[in-house]
Every structure is written in structure tokens, then in C-alpha cells.
Design goal:
Two copies of one chain form a homodimer.
Chain A (H helix, E strand, L loop, with lengths): L8 H21 L3 E3 L6 H5 L2 H4 L25 H10 L7 E3 L4 H14 L16 E6 L3 H9 L3 E8 L2 E2 L1 H10 L3 E6 L13 H8 L9 E5 L17 H8 L5 E6 L11 E4 L2 H14 L5 H11 L2 H30 L6 E2 L8 E4 L5 H10 L2 E3 L16 E4 L6 H25 L5
Parallel strand pairs in A: 1-12, 3-4, 3-6, 6-7, 7-8
Antiparallel strand pairs in A: 2-9, 4-5, 8-9, 10-11, 11-13
Helix pairs in contact in A: 1-14, 8-9, 12-14, 13-14
Chain lengths: ~425, ~425
């Protein structure tokens, strides 16, 4: 079959008619499928039930004898800080254990920076006029919503296969003192699935921001979420920062939302000792600590870093077929037409699809009308606006493989319709 | 024996010497006791272990079939909202389930009001110059620390046996638009143990604050924490507000920190539907929800409001002897000398002691030097300053009955020394 670009207009019209017929048939099925969020399904959640089966009397005392059922241990229990520190290549003194949402930790860190300022900063962010964040795009929609909520101006930085365009990012960060932060998902990035290259991490560590209260929000959500034999390697940014004396510039976040339970995991904030001290002081006004039984429950279940990795192997065995299924459907459905490209990640929760400019919103709308929900087109961009209207985030984890295959089939048909409509509006070259 | 006031100076000097001898003996024991915080002890925490013994497979699905292990149900699971709503005399639509700290919910509500504003407010609190909070004193130190952290000016309102001095409180709230809030612990108040009278609650509901973005922070921490046969009755403030059309003025908070586990409970925010809608919208930017397994764990364990009350009966049986022990020690140690008075609450976690002016800091210091730690003198007042230096908070829950008796004995000796020192500095009338 010919690619859509190489078709004449009459061939395109015939093809559009054929796809519209297929679409009508799919629509008539009355699907009710959700491909919009990167969330685990029930079977995947079952993989962690043993964690909840532990004898609760084994979950009372930390190794130093602290009763985790009581107040105390503001920054979390030692063994949790130690385990997650190891996972991130850090000491337990670099760790604060949070509640069950790393997003909440990030929000909290931003709002405190606005009202109270960051360690070493002269004034709170909120007293410095219009502040800005750098936003590698496509990126994680909920990061951008935090900025929008607080009126923080967002500057898009294109994502390359190696991570953000660091040359551009550096120019903004180093020239404008109103630029106070940057959002990153450095490993199996949401949504492109890329892992920042060693050069990219090095460039982050080497930043000399114009603002002395600039922070890198290093959202390492998929730190151990590879699902193929080859796991991407992410350089430890704190190691790189050490060489540049820039450790205070980084806040790293992670959680077990996609390790154990999205609704009942534990979250982690990692930072330099100076930052941890500063943040712990702030935290002492806010709370007497997060759920420590749940922290101990996690640590006693994983035992050590190998236990955590073995647990993630089970998750990988479960997720990989879903990704393969979605990718196969894309190949089968779209290779001939040649109207888009997509990422084939080694881990994480997303496939990023890029179609022809001007097709994304139309495609998502068509899918929705056929009962298949995708993440809103534009969601991965600041203010929800994809300037080229071409990117769509695909989240294969939640539907069953069967639902996934049906959804992706609908997706391919809708892509084709949207692409043909765009191509038919353009003057043909031949 | 004579009261200290009726003694001559020489009698006082002899008595001081006697007490100093007793003090030296106590000090030599080398105590290491902590009476500073209202926290449960291990035996008390054991009362809730059955909650953790539930089969985890019974804690997966809500009654409407939601998988609590996954994302979703931002404001909490229905059955939790329903149960805690009932406890507070409200509908589930008036409830947001939080994490395990009501303090964190309060902090969060204040910081969001500063940055984003409250429902119906014209501007965020942070954009209105110097704002103020009314602080019934003696009160809860951590409330005051939140104000201090954010530079909110604190205005002390004396606590009476019926609650805050409502006439004074009303004058401030209704005359000054910079007054944005008031802290309350309306039942078994921290530290006085008083419960606000129906008239006091009515007066709160009838407030017509000068600021249209004024909020009552109704920290109902001890909502079900009576430990005697007669439980104090607190009028439902929302019922009272309904009559005045002032429901939007109240944020109510509670938690199970002193019901199940201080380190792993659940917290609750209750408010008018309008406020809940507004706050849930803000919350949707911040997180995908708090730990829902723990919510379900709590509800399935209590089953209903009677289950919760029966559980608290066990706590009461455990706490009452500790309070009786502390009160007996105060009577035995101080009745004759007649140098102070104290509250004898029907519930909660504290006894509030008032000695002669100028004795509190000295007494706490003497106790500390003898190895018995009390809450810092002044802690129950804004900025940590008790203008009369006479109030001390006694928290009988954590030490064993034996430790408690020993601690209170030391306390009485130190009170006597401090009182005699003050009386000896005054000119004798006779």
C-alpha cells in the first residue's frame, strides 16, 4: 500500500471513505475504554499483596527500637531512608520520606518555596515578581498544572532523544534570574520514554543559573521501571553535581506508586544535606511525620535493593506484553500510511506518538466519540497547548491486552482519518 | 500545714530549705522522664493492632467497587467520608479525607489560603499585607507555630471555662479586616481540657467578621476522647452556622492519631459543600489522593460509629487511671501550699496547671534539671511567651503510671520551690 503522502487526492478521498467506514463499524461496538492515564491494573496491583500480608507485630519497631505507630521520626524511619537512599545512590541523610504521593511532595516544595523561600535564597519566590519554570516538552501534565496553579510562567524546551535541548535550557537558566526551576522526568520520561544521556545529566549539573534560588525538580518516577532486558542507565545527578559543587540545586523525587500501590505507596524526597536540613526544619512546623507503618511495611517487604529489583521484574513481565501489543498495533496499523512516528521505550508507562501537525486533537476527539479515551491532546505541553497539535500520549498499562489491542486499532483508524483530512486540505504537489 | 501565702518569711525560708532537700534527693535518682507531649504509649497503641490484622484482600474494594490500591477517589473513599461525616454530624459531601496528619491538613489549608486564597475571597491572604489570627490562650503550640512560620500576627484571646472570651474575640474579628482566622480546639481543649459551651459555639456561628475571607479553624482533635462516664457535649458548629448562613466560615479538622495510631492514622477536613468543592479543585492539582487502603482499613475495622465509640471506650479505660494518678499527685502535693490551680478534664490529653505568676519557667527548668521533661513554659502562648509566666501543660498519657507519679512528685516539689522563691522576693504584708 502507498503512503498517504504519495497518494493523489482522489486516492486519499477513497482511502478516507474506507477508513470512515471502518470507524463507523468500531463506533457501533460501543466501547468504553480508558487509555488516558498511566495507572496499573488490578492484576498488576495484586503483585504487591504479599506486602500487606506481613504480620503487623513485625511492623512495630524499627531496628533502633522506635515504635513507628507513635509520633516521631519526622523525616521517616532510618531503614526506609537507607533503602531508598541506596536506590538513588545516596546516603540516608539525603532522604526525607513523604506520604504516598511524590506529586504532593513536589507541590509542597513549590508552594513552600513561594511562601518561605529555598535554602540560600534571599527572598521567597513569591516576592520576586513573575517567576518562570523551564518545561521540557512533551512532559508530564501534572508538573505543568502546578505551575499554572501558581501563576508560574512556563517556557517550553524541546525534548530530544537524549533529554531536553540543554543548549537552549542553559541559555534560559543562565540569563534570566526569574527562571527558578525546571521540571524533569529523567528516566523513561513521561511521555517520550527517553532516559537523559550522561551528557545531559552532566549539563544539568554544570548549570550556573542566573537565580541563586534555582532548583531542578528531578522527578525520578520511573527509577526502576525498565521492562526489557536492557535497562536504561541514568547517571546519578548528585554525583555529577558534586564535581560542580552544585548539589544544592537539585530536588529529586520518587515514589512506589508504580512499584507497590498507586493508592497507598510511599514517596521520597532526596536532596543535599543542606537542603534536607532546611526542608526538615520547615516540615517540623507542618506535621509530626508521614505514615511510618507504611514505610516499614515497604522496607520489610523489599528487604533490600535486590528485593526491590526482583519485585520490579514481576512488574516488568507484566507490563512488557502490553507495550509490545500497543507497539505491534501501531506498526500494523500505521506503517504503510507513514503518517506518524512513536517512541519504543525500554521502561516507564508511556508511548509518545507524533502524527502530522494538526491531527492530534481531531484524533483524540474521534477516539473519544468511539468510546476510547486518550489523554487530552496538548496535555503534555504547558497550558495544555501543543503548538503543532501533533503529539498524543499513549498509556498501555491499565487496559487488558485485549482492550488495548482494540483501543489501538481505533486509534490507528482515527489517526488515518485525521491525517487524510489534513492532507486533503493541503494543495497536492503533483 | 499552712498555705505558703499565710506563712511568714522565716517559715517560707524553712519550707524552701525542706523542699530543696527533697529536690536534691529526687535529682540524685537520675530520672529520664518525658511529660512533654500528648502522645499515647505502646500499650495504648496495642489497642488498635486488630485493625492491622484484617485480611488485606478484604481491603481492596470499596462498596461501589473502586480498587483502593489504585489512583482515584481524590477526596477519599465514600465509606470513610460517610463514617467520619456521621461522627461530626455531617454528610459525606462535607468531607475530604486527608493523609495521617490533621496538622498537615491545617498547614496545607493555611498555605493555600496565603497563595491561592479561600472560596469567595477576593485576593489570596498573602496579597493583603499583614494578616492576623486570633489565638485563644493557652492553646495548642503547633497552631501558633504555623502562624509564626508564615508571619501571621497572633492576637491572644483568653480562654475561659466556657471557651474563648467571645466578646473580645468578636470585637477583633468584626472590626479588623486583617483578621483572617481563629484557632480552636473546641472539645477537651489543648491544654485546658474545657469544651466550648453551646453559647460559645453559637457566638462563633453568629460572627460577622470584617474580612469576607475569614475562617474558623475548628480543630476537633478530641471529638470522641472523653474518658469519664460523663462525656462533654459539643454543639455541632455547622448546625449553628446553618441558622446564621455562615457555614462557609468554618473548616473543621480531626484525625485518628489518638484513636488508632499517631504515626499511621487518617485525617479529615470537614466544610461546607461550597468550600469542599473549592478545596477539592485545589487538591486536584496537588495529588491524586491520600492513602486509601488505610482509609478502608480504618472504616472496616470500626464498622460504624458505635464501633468507633466502643474502641474509644478501651482508650478511655486506659487513659483515665493516668489522669487520676496525675490529679491525685497534684492534690496530695499542692493542696496545702495553695499555690496553684489546675483543670480536671473529662477527656483529651492534657491538664493545664496555673501556678503563681513568675514561676512557670523556673519550675519547668527545675524539673528538667531533675530529669523530668515538661512542655516548655510559654509553649501554649503565641510566640512562646506566657505574659504571666504561670501556665504549664501536663501530658499524662505517655509515661507509665509509676513514672507519672514520680514525675508529678518532682513537679510538685519544683512548683513549691519556684513559688517560695517568688514569695520570698515579695515584701511580706505582715
Amino acid at each position: 500500500m502507498k503512503s498517504y503522502r504519495s497518494m493523489t487526492d482522489s486516492e486519499r478521498r477513497a482511502e478516507l471513505e474506507a477508513q470512515q467506514k471502518r470507524y463507523a463499524k468500531e463506533k457501533a461496538v460501543g466501547y468504553k475504554l480508558d487509555m488516558s492515564r498511566g495507572k496499573p491494573d488490578a492484576t498488576q496491583l495484586n503483585l504487591s499483596m504479599d506486602m500487606l500480608q506481613q504480620n503487623p507485630y513485625d511492623l512495630i519497631y524499627t531496628r533502633k527500637g522506635t515504635d513507628v505507630r507513635n509520633y516521631g521520626e519526622l523525616a521517616g524511619v532510618d531503614e526506609a531512608k537507607e533503602l531508598f537512599g541506596k536506590v538513588l545512590g545516596l546516603e540516608m541523610e539525603n532522604i526525607i520520606m513523604g506520604g504516598q504521593s511524590s506529586l504532593a511532595l513536589m507541590y509542597d516544595t513549590v508552594i513552600k518555596a513561594i511562601v518561605l523561600g529555598v535554602c540560600g535564597g534571599e527572598k521567597p519566590w513569591g516576592q520576586q515578581g513573575q517567576i518562570k519554570f523551564l518545561c521540557p516538552t512533551p512532559g508530564y501534565d501534572r508538573h505543568f498544572r502546578i505551575c499554572e496553579e501558581f501563576g508560574i510562567e512556563m517556557i517550553s524546551i524541546p525534548m530530544l532523544s537524549t533529554g531536553p535541548d540543554m543548549e537552549l535550557l542553559r541559555q534560559y537558566a543562565e540569563s534570566d534570574p526569574q527562571v527558578k526551576g525546571v521540571w524533569c522526568v529523567p528516566k523513561y520520561s513521561n511521555p517520550t520514554g527517553c532516559t537523559f544521556s550522561p551528557e545531559t545529566v552532566e549539563a544539568f549539573a554544570a548549570l550556573k543559573p542566573a537565580a541563586d534560588d534555582f532548583r531542578i525538580f528531578w522527578d525520578n518516577a520511573y527509577f526502576v521501571h525498565g521492562f526489557r532486558d536492557t535497562d536504561d542507565e541514568l547517571v546519578n545527578i548528585f554525583e555529577a553535581c558534586k564535581r560542580h559543587g552544585s548539589e544544592d540545586m537539585v530536588y529529586e523525587f520518587m515514589s512506589t506508586s508504580k512499584v507497590t500501590f498507586s493508592g497507598a505507596g510511599v514517596a521520597v524526597l532526596a536532596a543535599s544535606r543542606r537542603n534536607i536540613e532546611f526542608l526538615t526544619r520547615q516540615m517540623s512546623v507542618q506535621t509530626l511525620g508521614y505514615d511510618k507503618i507504611n514505610q516499614l511495611r515497604h522496607v520489610r517487604y523489599f528487604k533490600d535493593i535486590d528485593g526491590l529489583r526482583n519485585h520490579m521484574k514481576k512488574q516488568a513481565d507484566y507490563l512488557l506484553p502490553k507495550f509490545e501489543c500497543a507497539l505491534a498495533a501501531l506498526h500494523t496499523g500505521l506503517d504503510d500510511a507513514d503518517i506518524g512516528r512513536w517512541t519504543e521505550p525500554n521502561g516507564g508507562y508511556f508511548i509518545s506518538y507524533e502524527g502530522l501537525p494538526g491531527t492530534a486533537r481531531r484524533c483524540v476527539q474521534l477516539c473519544a466519540e468511539a468510546g476510547v479515551k486518550f489523554t487530552d491532546a496538548g496535555a503534555c505541553f504547558p497550558y495544555g497547548i501543543d503548538p503543532e497539535d501533533k503529539q498524543i500520549r499513549i498509556a498501555p498499562s491499565y487496559p487488558s491486552t485485549q482492550e488495548l489491542y482494540m483501543s489501538m486499532n481505533v486509534f490507528c483508524i482515527c489517526q488515518k482519518i485525521a491525517a487524510l483530512e489534513v492532507l486533503l486540505r493541503e494543495p497536492t504537489l503533483d
